[in-house]
Design a protein that fits this description.
The complex is a heterodimer. In chain A, about 35% of the residues lie in helices and about 5% in strands. Chain A is built from three helices and two strands; from the N terminus they run αααββ. A two-stranded antiparallel sheet of chain A has the order 1-2. In chain A, strand 1 (about 85) and strand 2 (about 85-90) form a beta hairpin. Chain A is flat, with a radius of gyration of 23 Å. By secondary structure, chain B is an alpha/beta fold. Chain B has a domain at about 10-260 and about 440-445: Alpha-Beta Complex (Amidase signature (AS) enzymes). Chain B has helices at about 10-15, 20-40, 50-65, 105-115, 155-165, 180-185, 220-230, 275-290, 305-320, 340-350, 355-365, 370-395, 420, 430-435, 460-475; strands spanning about 45, 75-80, 115-120, 170-175, 190, 210-215, 260-265, 295, 400, 440-445, 450-455. An eleven-stranded mixed beta sheet of chain B has the order 1-3-2-4-6-5-10-11-9-7-8, sandwiched between helices. In chain B, strand 7 (about 260-265), helix 8 (about 275-290) and strand 8 form a beta-alpha-beta unit. The chains are: A mainly alpha, B alpha/beta. At the A-B interface, helix 1 and helix 2 of A face helix 9, helix 10, helix 11, helix 12 and helix 13 of B. Chain A: It comes from Thermohalobacter berrensis. Chain A: Keywords: ATP-binding, Ligase, Nucleotide-binding, Protein biosynthesis, Transferase. Chain A: It catalyses: L-glutamyl-tRNA(Gln) + L-glutamine + ATP + H2O = L-glutaminyl-tRNA(Gln) + L-glutamate + ADP + phosphate + H(+); L-aspartyl-tRNA(Asn) + L-glutamine + ATP + H2O = L-asparaginyl-tRNA(Asn) + L-glutamate + ADP + phosphate + 2 H(+). Chain A: InterPro entries: Asp/Glu-ADT_sf_sub_c, GatC.
Chain lengths: ~100, ~475
């Protein structure tokens, strides 16, 4: 299938990415070449085949519901780009 | 004393016999790094001060006659996507340029508990996405055999560090071939363990159902020693598998008499450099001479492996890398007026081109209307690929193939064409998709460049891979070399 610049802009929006006018031409072309490559799977007959999301039959690993030690708050915040009074700080999200 | 290219097992014995101290060893390694790092560029961060401090502690323990493990006092390099408390872990990305992890990965903790000496953090393709280390935001590591060529990737820094003797051994990580391909290009031993054998806790996630950490070493015995020290169940990784502990050094000397070796015809087709194939056939003959039985087999879905991989890995990556939003850690854009602008600008400025491409491909394959056609279909083909291996392993003990379709390529040769770069993993991705273990080891040189042989085993049967590799290593008849870095 053909990938247009509009498709790329739509997917970018979903992925929270943006591309400049100069970037988008080259990106669309390379992106399309990857999608074209993976289209090869359309040849395979997968009728009745179960998907493998995971190679081992491990399901729903549970642990005992016990309170453990948490990481120290200062440590948690040590890499924060912006913080205030023990919280991560971001721009206002409510109007 | 000349310290060139010693292995873990050799240095372990020297330390115990007091022929050398750990401090002396660490100092010599930093001297070596000073000498060649300018040319090879294996490391992103060096941790000399901590390394020397730790070495002195180990020397004190040795002086007191304390019983120490195989790795004690011996220098190691760690790939920079494995977190190290208090030491920058960048993933080769501007996004994490200044990230100092507040905790250790389980493998880091295991190394530290064994008194290993971490020399530094090695270069990689950004977030381990690439096959050449050219995608690092900081530097391009060179192949020590020919500085105009790539060392492979994504664990290119780890492989180059080991072969140029800037470290005794290293840890790498593999999602589609990122341990074996650089091991092959640099002429060292690299093992991608069975999925679930080594804890992924603290490995910055790329594709969670494929990622595994593994050893990159100078010889097969070292590979077994390192695996002994990093394998094991971890409650912090719910995908790690709880099994009885195995001593991987035990089986090494068992030999290969009666071993059933399969050569998959799809891994020896026209896309593979015939000179590379000839080296593998020569190596297989050595094993045959030692009593192994060799047959040709088919892994019929091999031709779909790379397409399957380039849906599943980017899909998982697009989800995993959603965490990089400029809020809790990592890069944040300078100017923003809203939360959306903060997210979009942070991610667009912080990620490099290949990472963005994979996030985009993954997002596309998971998006409404395309999920079944791409993602779900790929997971079904994955079932078929996995079954191919299960069928062969009903009758055979190991599968042998080349690790890479070509010799190490030139820096810049494939960088502008993503598909041609992806094709360098054509012989390794199936193994990650199937979750089985595989090792690459050197089996000769062509035009002064190393060739890698891949040995694939059954799930959790690393011992059989290692004994096959050991038998070949001890009986191989090519002249072993070390690179002259120039």
């Amino acid at each position: 299938m053909d990938i247009s610049k509009e498709d790329v802009k739509h997917v970018a929006k979903l992925a929270r990415l943006e591309f400049s006018q100069e970037e988008i031409e080259d990106f669309t072309q390379k992106f399309a070449s990857v999608i074209e490559y993976v289209e090869k799977l359309k040849e395979v007959d997968v009728e009745g085949i179960e998907p493998t999301y995971h190679v081992h039959p491990i399901k729903n690993v549970m642990r005992e519901d016990k309170v453990g030690k948490s990481m120290d708050r200062d440590k948690v915040l040590s890499n924060a780009p912006d913080k205030e009074t023990g919280f991560f700080k971001i721009p206002n999200v409510l109007d | 004393m000349d310290l060139n290219n010693f292995t873990i097992h050799e240095l372990r014995d020297k330390l115990r016999k007091k022929e050398i101290s750990s401090e002396e060893l660490v100092n010599r390694y930093f001297k070596r790094i000073e000498k060649v790092e300018g040319k090879v560029e294996s490391y992103i961060t060096l941790t000399k001060e901590e390394a020397l401090k730790k070495a002195k502690e180990v020397d004190e323990k040795l002086a007191k006659g304390e019983e120490l493990g195989d790795l004690a006092g011996i220098p190691v390099a760690v790939k920079d996507n494995i977190v190290t408390e208090g030491v920058k872990t960048t993933c080769g990305s501007k996004m994490l340029e200044n990230f100092v992890p507040p905790y250790d990965a389980t493998v880091t903790k295991k190394l530290k508990d064994e008194d290993a000496i971490i020399l530094g953090k090695t270069n990689l393709d950004e977030f381990a996405m690439g096959s050449s280390t050219e995608n690092s935001a900081f530097k391009t590591t060179k192949n020590p055999w020919d500085l105009s060529r790539v060392p492979g990737g994504s664990s290119g820094g780890s492989a180059a560090a080991v072969v140029s003797d800037e470290a005794v051994y290293a840890l790498g990580s593999s999602t589609g071939g990122s341990i074996r391909q650089p091991a092959a290009f640099c002429g060292i031993v690299g093992l991608k363990p069975t999925y679930g054998l080594v804890s992924r806790y603290g490995l910055v996630a790329f594709a969670s159902s494929l990622d595994q950490i593994g050893p990159m070493t100078k010889d097969v015995e070292d590979c077994a020693i390192v695996l002994n020290n990093i394998a094991g169940y971890d409650k912090m990784d719910s995908t790690s598998v709880n099994r009885e502990k195995v001593d991987y050094t035990k089986a090494l000397k068992e030999g290969v008499k009666g071993l059933k070796i399969a050569l998959p015809k799809e891994y020896f087709d026209d896309r593979i450099d015939s000179r590379v194939k000839d080296k593998i056939y020569d190596a297989v003959k050595v094993l045959e001479g030692l009593g192994a039985e060799v047959s040709e087999v088919s892994l019929p879905h091999s031709e779909y492996a790379l397409s399957t991989y380039y849906i599943i890995a980017p899909a998982e990556a697009s989800s995993n890398l959603a965490r990089f939003d400029g809020v809790r850690y990592g890069y944040r854009t300078e100017n923003y007026n809203s939360i959306d602008e903060l997210f979009i600008k942070t991610r667009s400025e912080g990620f490099g081109e290949e990472v963005k491409r994979r996030i985009m491909v993954g997002t596309y394959c998971l998006s409404s209307g395309y999920y079944d056609a791409y993602y779900k279909r790929a997971q079904k083909v994955r079932t078929l690929i996995k079954k191919d291996f299960e069928d062969v392993f009903k009758k055979y003990d190991v599968i042998i193939s080349p690790t890479t379709p070509t010799l190490p390529f030139k820096i810049g040769e494939k960088k502008e064409d993503p598909i041609s770069m992806y094709l360098s993993d054509i012989l390794t991705v199936s193994i990650n998709l199937a979750g089985v273990p595989a090792l690459s080891m050197p089996c000769g040189y062509i035009d002064g460049l190393p060739v890698g042989m891949q040995i694939i085993g059954k799930a959790f049967d690393e011992s059989t891979i290692l004994k096959t590799a050991y038998a070949y290593e001890q009986n191989s008849n090519y002249e072993k070399k070390t690179p002259e870095i120039k």
